[in-house]
């Protein structure tokens, strides 16, 4: 029997909304027999370079809204959420390490991705430096020295750039972003609509 | 007995998402015993001037997403939706006429607001010119000549500017935007969350 196509789940750990989605997507997918394909994207590329906008936290009105909104959404979803404690968090090393691990074990990489998001938004620890990333890997019992070498390799640096280019080519502009069966969804507030699609594969109200 | 506070519903007829919300908000509010206070806002002020962004239709990737997304949301909500047929639609005269009518009859003004949104997005007719606005008023059996005089008065022009300033001061940046009991909600995709608030007045999952 043919496998149903996976849900492409695009994340950047710097996004609190991406973290919230990272806590929900696997159980949602499993309820409808779908696999989740975790894919990296960089908001610094999509928002700043491609769309020519400014970061949400630095956007008047919208920044204040999202700072407040993330907390009530977390409460509603029953997951922890903390305030940003580190200025200018960089996701680059974390996403390189994620891609390196994904080449070896996709399930471990997904768990590592969830853990990196939670490190920043549930525990308030940084993810920017190599040592931050490896500390998180150690918590999960991963091979830290192999990851250290792998995440710095030229191949992985190139792969992250290519993956972000592919995300942009697929129309991904925000985080979280989901694509399944060619249907794109932006935002953790669209999980209800993603679920409708997974249930009915139609946009009729109740087909 | 004290009346529960109304839902402030901010709309700009140029937004397809605002139109979609305009078809839903009254029945949602009525289910929870709330009144809807229809309030004008101008995306040309909030998005361009206050946030310093560009219009969504002109934003790479996000523009394409919203053009597609509006159609599947309309289908899901069971309401008509058409493609934009008029470049550079201006909501200014429509919103002045709405405010003039609201001073006389808030319920009529809400019906007129819904009708203006549907004129643009369900029937594909323009709302920019005075004659467009008055044509819609005539469809509803309103006093067209009184509206013509009223919507051009200096007082109404000033009132629209003041209303938009008040919206910005309240944190309104997008359309549709809802505020109830001090809780702000942006987007037609947040109706589920607005409903949660109306039902429980809490962010606990099931209080």
Topology, pairings included?
The structure is a homodimer of 207-residue chains.
Chain A: E1 7-11, H1 16-22, H2 25-31, E2 36-40, H3 43-50, H4 62-77, H5 92-104, H6 106-121, H7 130-139, H8 144-151, H9 154-169, E3 177-180, E4 183-186, H10 191-200
Parallel strand pairs in A: 1-2
Antiparallel strand pairs in A: 1-3, 3-4
Structure, described:
The structure is a homodimer of 207-residue chains. Chain A is an alpha+beta fold and 207 residues long. Chain A has a single domain (7-200), classed as Glutaredoxin, CATH 3.40.30.10. Chain A has helices at residues 16-22, 25-31, 43-50, 62-77, 92-104, 106-121, 130-139, 144-151, 154-169, 191-200; strands at residues 7-11, 36-40, 177-180, 183-186. In chain A, strands 2-1-3-4 form a four-stranded mixed beta sheet, sandwiched between helices. In chain A, α5 packs across α8. The first copy, chain A, is globular. Chain A starts with 6 loop residues before the first strand and ends in a 7-residue tail after the last helix. The interface between A and B is large, with 37 and 37 residues.
Low-confidence stretches of chain A: none
Q: Report the C-alpha radius of gyration of chain A, rounded.
A: 17 Å
Gap from first CA to last CA of chain A:
24 Å
Structural class of chain A: alpha+beta
Strand content of chain A: 5-15%
What oligomeric assembly is this protein in? homodimer
CATH topology of chain A: Glutaredoxin
Based on DSSP secondary structure assignment, what is the total number of beta strands of chain A? Answer: 4
Secondary-structure element order of chain A, N to C: EHHEHHHHHHHEEH
Which term fits the overall shape of chain A?
globular
CATH class of chain A equals Alpha Beta
Per CATH, the superfamily of chain A is: Glutaredoxin
Helix content of chain A: 40-55%
Largest interface: A-B, 37 and 37 residues
Major sheet attributes of chain A? 4 strands, mixed
Query: How many DSSP H or I helices of chain A?
Result: 10
């Amino acid at each position: 029997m043919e496998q149903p196509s996976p849900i492409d789940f695009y994340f950047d750990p710097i996004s609190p909304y991406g973290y919230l989605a990272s806590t929900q997507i696997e159980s949602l997918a499993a309820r409808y027999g779908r696999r989740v394909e975790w894919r990296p994207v960089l908001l610094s590329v999509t928002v700043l370079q491609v769309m020519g906008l400014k970061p949400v936290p630095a956007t008047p009105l919208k920044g204040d809204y999202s700072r407040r909104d993330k907390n009530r959404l977390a409460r509603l979803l029953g997951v922890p959420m903390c305030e940003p404690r580190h200025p200018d968090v960089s996701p680059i090393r974390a996403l390189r390490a994620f891609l390196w691990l994904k080449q070896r074990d996709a399930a471990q990489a997904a768990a590592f991705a969830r853990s990196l998001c939670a490190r920043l938004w549930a525990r308030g620890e940084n993810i920017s430096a190599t040592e931050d990333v490896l500390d998180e890997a150690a918590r999960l019992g991963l091979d830290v020295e192999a990851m250290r070498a792998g995440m710095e390799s030229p191949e992985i640096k190139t792969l992250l750039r290519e993956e972000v280019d592919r995300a942009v080519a697929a129309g991904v502009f925000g985080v979280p972003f989901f694509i399944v069966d060619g249907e794109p969804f932006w935002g953790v507030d669209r999980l209800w609509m993603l679920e409708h699609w997974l249930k009915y594969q139609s946009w009729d109200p109740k087909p």
